[in-house]
Batch of 3 targets.
Target 1
Amino acid sequence: MRIKIKSKLALSLSLALITPVMADDVLLAEQRLLAGLQAMNSLSLDQALSNFEQLSEQHPTYKLANLVKADLLALKAGQSDILTQYRKSHASDIDKLEDEARVRWQFAQGALTQNSGLDHFILKSGVQKYVVIVNLHESRLYLFGRNAQNKMEQLADYYIAIGTKGAGKLREGDQKTPIGVYHVVDMIADDKLPDLYGVGALPLNYPNKWDKSLGRTGSGIWLHGVPRDTYARPPKSSRGCVVLTNNAMEKLLTDYQLPLSTPIIIANESQDDVSLNMDGKYLVKEVKAWLEDNQQNVDWQQVSVYQYPSEKNLYYVTYPAADKDKMVHQFWRRGLEGDWRVVLQDVEHTEIKYVFRR
């Protein structure tokens, strides 16, 4: 297992950041993984082995933990030739597992300066209880909820796997995860799912109105768990869905009970691209003025405004429709003369069932 470190200090600070929220078993497992990797890079092999043995005991189906533990045991026994041969015969599978280690390590190194995208993508949040930002570039899901002051704050972040072919879904079967703003439209319980999808699934409304206007096809894009014989999947291993560990998925389904219509912002941004969006602040004022002129019955407190990921000067606005159980979805863009305007609008029921395809 070879992982480059920028500095030991960066990782130790990252671990310190994780420590206060250790009540979450998902983060406990991640902390032990990172501590084991740190020990390996410090050549403290006994300490590393102890961490991976504990992680393997806690999560027997964690293939990455089992692989590293086997590596360390082989090195300790002086059986490096057997280790080399095994790696050659299973190169593809091992590469995928090591990809996960690299992704998690890189995320931990930047944990203190990590920008989750809250101020970048969420310009105004309505009355919804939660908002989720999925950053495909980081293989990370961020969950935000309202605090006592009624402001959105980060509640959790979890490692995820995405489509085998990466980000930017264009057509059915391309094995890519879409980029855009979507909503949870259903909850499928464990007993209604094949084992592939783990403890439950939250289907999203892909393709939305914007996707359809661009000719994007496919459906059946979900947030879901993993099979019982797998703790976590490699970073790029799904057919387009966002895949969490079963422990993390259970947190979303039971502890947080994400309601229908929860916004899911799926982005593919590097840290350099995620910054405070000043232009969008002006757009919020334009939306409010437009609603006052055209939709006077809309409660401004229930209006949400998001920057649309990977689209220049495109913003997504949503609010409850006059008809019960429906939501208005608007796509705003700046015109050639600098004015903001609605370029697409859709009205959907808050609960929509989709045919299972990808």
Note: The longest strand covers residues 340-349.
Target 2
Amino acid sequence: MTEISHTEEMQEAFLRQQNELRDKIEQADRLAIGDVKRVAGVDLAYWKQGEDEYAVCCIVVIDFETHAVLEKQHVSGKIEVPYMPGFLAFRELPLILKTAALLETSPDIFIFDGNGYLHPRHMGIATHASFSLHKPTVGIAKTYFRVDQKTDYTEPADEAGSYTDIVIGGEVYGRALRTQKHIKPVFISVGNYISLDTACALAMQLTDKESHIPLPTRLADLETHIEREAARNAVL
């Protein structure tokens, strides 16, 4: 079997799984924002060793009210699935689930540095992971992902908390949210078991003056840089 046909077979299997799962997405709050106590930020960083590709996943859990860090965990390993547009979750999910399994603190919500509903089949990493984590999830991306390669977003007003909906084919896929004045927006999309309004409210409450990126994923991103360098120098 050629590498091309193997990749095509994987794509077909992945597509079937995404189509099966997307009908189970719930864009409604399973948890009131007032009941949120612990929030986890999730991010990954990649590197190459020879012909092989590796990644490290870092999860940082913080207290929702105080923003104090409660726990950090990470797992690194070889990436077994080649890059295929629209199927990123299948590359990242194994490391994410291994890292989440190490947590001693149980997060109420997981926030991902990436997309959820803002995806051609509404199955970005934040959404896909929710079916294994069984917790509400949110995708918060730093850059805009053009789902249909033509729909752009409208810049929100230059005020903290301003937003514009990202509408594709008459459906709201996500929001461009300005978390700080004079700073570019982030892109919020529902993962699962949460509403877009609540996802945006969480993002605003979790953003401090240090950055326009909400704290959980910002801290997770910082950890990936540290752990990637450590893993590069270790024998995997």
Note: The longest strand covers residues 38-49.
Target 3
Amino acid sequence: MQLAGELSKMNLASLIRLVRNGELTGKVCLTQGASTAFIFFENGQPIHVESDFGVGREALLELFCWQSGTFSYIESSVEGTRRTLSADEALEKLLKEGLAHQEALKYLEQLRISPRTVFRATENANNDPFLARMDGRSSLAEIVQSLGLTRSSYLRRLQELVASGKVLVVEPAADAQGLQLPDWVISRLKQDNADVAQAIVDLVIWADRIKCWMYQADADLERLIGMLDKPEAASSAEKREQSFEPENSTFAQAAPTELKSEESTSAAAAQEISRPQARPPSYEF
């Protein structure tokens, strides 16, 4: 039997169920970018998993997080293949745990939580070593390494703690490119805005404005230097500017005369009004 396709159209759980229902023996090859993984089946039951990041149960759970890539099934003998998956564990239980692992990782990634994220517990640990280490100083990677935890053993637990509000993020999570700012930079950004992400956006906007101002200043400076290097051009520019002065000058000279004439006329009219008028002759009857 030949089987191939894309993981975006058939997830890993459906693929494993298909092989189980067919009681097939062979291996499934999964690829995502440069990563490759193999799942070996015997009579429809997965017996061994190997990938670039491990073998066995942990490797299988990580494969559930592959949302893209390709798969292909090759029917072949698996004689001599070592068993890294327990035959006592029910397959449906394993698939259910794999899907839960996938959802937990998706939830945390949406919150941009990474190994560099620092958490602070909001309640007593109650003999929970994982919660007790969330002191507001240690990163998630440091806690996991100190306790020797695997991803499958802490991922769902962390999802529960974050969703219930039992832990809080006390430092901004690293971005998708793994950017990590020094503490003094974060402190300086928070002086402008408590939201570090918005403070960075504002900083970029101001930087763009300053660039525009500098470009304009450079252009003006080059124009002035060009005028100084070419006195003839500067003289021509001055003449063009002065070509509008005669009309303005004539107006400036004529205006006082016209104003004086208007003042004389107004004064004469005032004297005419104030001069006593001759009374007409009176007649008596």
Note: Residues 196-229 form the longest helix (34 residues).
